[in-house]
Amino acid sequence: MRNFIHISEGRRTILPDLTFFSLKITAVLAEILLTTCVMPAFLSCEHSIINTDIENTRDSSSLKHHSLELAVTKPETYESLDIFTFDDDKLRRLDSYQKINYAGKNVDMASRSGRKIIVALANTGFSEKQLMHIRKYDDLLTLHTDLKNENPEYPVMCCEKKVNVGNNGRIELELKALMAEIRINSLCCDFHARPYNGEKLENVRVYLTNVCSRVPLTGTPPKTPESILNYGKFIVSDTLGFSYPGLIFRKVPIPVGENVIFPNIRLYCYGNLSETETLGSPFTRLVIEGELQGKKTYYPLDINREQTGNENCGITGNNAYIFDITITRRGMDNPDTVINTESIDCPLKIIPWEQLNNRTIKF
Q1: Which domain holds residue 95?
Q2: Confidence class of residue 330 from pLDDT cuts 50, 70 and 90?
Q3: Residue 234 and residue 221: Cα distance in Å, rounded?
Q4: Do 57 and 153 fall within a single domain?
Q5: How many folded domains does the chain comprise?
Q6: Residue 158: which CATH number?
Q7: How high is the pLDDT of residue 341?
Q8: Do 203 and 54 belong to one domain?
Q9: What is the b/e burial string over 218-246, where b = at least 16 CB atoms within 10 angstroms of the residue's CB?
Q10: Which helix (H) or strand (E) holds 23?
Q11: I need a labelling partner for 124 at 20 to 30 A (CA). Which of 88, 147, 193, 213 fits?
Q12: Share of the chain above pLDDT 90, in %
């Protein structure tokens, strides 16, 4: 609570009891009035009322309700939405917050007029109580999401936009997934003119290494990962504890030979935009592991780097990186040494994830 009255320790003035009591009442009323003018309004979109469980909420008389239209190709990708509205000024204080348990394409949201920063978060798994500490925009930077809690059917998504909220008009917010999808569309071996011509790659499994597993929900992603899964190799313990099993590791059910198979393997990770590979910020890799003539061999691929046709681009969330892979010779002896392009042909196609599932909020 703010203090608006400062009492110095210098000269002492004795007031009559009645005057002192009146001044104290006035000061208390002033403090309540000023405090309620700066506190945010917490609303429930399901009931369209101020949440009475929150103390010191601001008077909602200046709130303007807007129709919120969720224009999505696959509505089932939304379980919940958290919408924050901040004043777009130096303080960037919270204007209003709403949680929407998605139950259709049309819901209501509310905001005061003026220059605002709107942040929408989908499928975070946070309860209203866990978000009650958000009082200004910078508080959002304390929120993180963990890959082990992700589900590609309901990916954590976010959007941030500066707007001028008025009585009329419609604002569009495009939610984007924080995860990227790494997909193997097709896979085969072509060992002609090799001593092992006609052999198949047995016991094949596909996984990601050097996976960033924790990122902030908003703001600029860190260039150095906060935590890494499968650092340099496949680590069994790192693949456990996922809400959605198989996010960074899959087995190929049949041996891989000359006949092209379409395993449609989809793995997921957060972005990795490290410009230079170091011990603390290694590039994320797609690794194909198998046995050729009874000996284990590895095919590690840097994702969207010079090896696959792009120099120092890296992985960005909300993109799908699609590989069609032909293995042409024996691979490497360990999963952390990048394979040369003579051993594998791996054309890469990148498409925005939103082309697969249009996730647009309009209000």
Answers
A1: 41-177+358-362
A2: very high
A3: 25
A4: yes
A5: 2
A6: 2.60.40
A7: 74
A8: no
A9: beebeeebeebbbebbbeeebbeebeeee
A10: helix 17-38
A11: 88
A12: 42
